[in-house]
Amino acid sequence: MTRLRVRLHIPQYYLQEPIISQMISHYQLTVNITGAELDKNTNEQGCFDIELEGSMSHINSCLTYLESLNLKILGKSSPDGDSWHC
């Protein structure tokens, strides 16, 4: 199992879409939301700090899916090299 932490920016036009639910069901990942900035009355994007856990191939497929939606995905290597963090 691999863990990956990223910050996911979701544009306003996707805020009503079940993107995180699809990450879980379609890519067999465990998704832990560790932080979020979201206002239901906003016309801005939402931001989620998430930790993905699963096989590396499933995580890569999920990231490809997110990129196909043109979502902004941020992350950087942690100092100890065991995961990712924002």
In short:
This protein has helices spanning 19-27, 56-68, and strands spanning 2-10, 30-37, 46-54, 72-74, 76-77, 84-85.
List keywords for this structure.
alpha+beta, 4-stranded antiparallel beta sheet, two-stranded antiparallel ribbon, 2 helices, 26% helix
Explain what this protein looks like in three dimensions:
By secondary structure, the chain is α+β, with helices and mostly antiparallel strands. It is 26% helix and 38% strand. It is built from two helices and six strands. The strands form two sheets. Strands 2-3-1-4 form a four-stranded antiparallel sheet, covered by helices on one side. Strands 5-6 form a two-stranded antiparallel ribbon. Strand 2 and strand 3 form a beta hairpin. Helix 1 packs antiparallel against helix 2. The two termini are 20 Å apart. The model has no long low-confidence stretch (mean pLDDT 83).
Based on CA atoms alone, the radius of gyration comes out at 13 Å
Number of strands: 6
The biggest sheet, with number of strands, parallel, antiparallel or mixed sense and barrel status, is: 4 strands, antiparallel
**Large-scale geometry:** globular
